[in-house]
Amino acid sequence: MKNANLLNKTIKAVTIKGFEVEGKVYDYNERYLSIENEVDYYVIDTQHDTYEVIEEVQAVQEPEFEIVEDTVQMDIKQLKKEIQQRLKYAEEATAKVQVYDFEEAGESGFDVEVKLTVDGEEEWLNVQTYGLEKDAVRRAKSILNTITKWELDTLEMVSGVEVYHA
Questions:
Q1: DSSP code of residue 7
Q2: Where are the alpha helices (DSSP H) in the chain?
Q3: Between 109 and which of 15, 68, 132, 160 could a Cys-Cys bridge form, CB atoms 3.0 to 4.6 Å apart?
């Protein structure tokens, strides 16, 4: 494909009828270039229209993070035991299931954690780490449903799963 090297480059095109347009190539195929600018989107027929590259856009180097492997810090039985232990002498407590999006030490991933607030003191129980957000959110919803079914007297559950980045 001769048009493959034009992707993300700014071109100036003149159609067969004399219409001039300048924009960035966002799609291509064997015959057509799709370009966009701040006004609209245009399709240029490379067999009839003329075009020239005005500016080559250099790829932006994003920091490379290695996606962490899925790891289990505590299973559901251990989580229940930890929560029951912390609620033993509590007068009031709330729990919220959260997904923490982290990027540190060249790694990125998502921690599923339970934010437990017992008598005004906050504590985070890290349950599992995932490489993909959708897997982490799915697991967090499952944990939320499970904790809700435990029917612990002093524990009030906050509905919904929050994804946050510190």
A1: T
A2: 76-87, 133-149
A3: 68
Residue 60 domain flag: no
Distinct helix (H) and strand (E) counts, the chain: 2, 12
- Residue 65 is encoded by which pair of tokens? 């993070």
Question: pLDDT tens digit string along 49-89?
Answer: 888 888 655 555 566 777 778 788 888 999 999 999 999 98
Joined tokens for residue 32: 């057509």
> What is the extent of the structural domain holding 95?
66-164
pTM attached to this predicted model? 0.59
DSSP code per residue over 56-80: PPPPP-PPP-EEPPPEESS-HHHHH
Give the CATH number of the domain where residue 48 resides.
2.30.30.100
Token pair of 8, please?
């993300």
Q: Vertex 44, ends 43 and 47: CA angle to 5°?
A: 140
Residue tagged 């995932």 (tokens): 130
Question: CB under 8 Å to 148, separation ≥6 — which residues?
Answer: 157
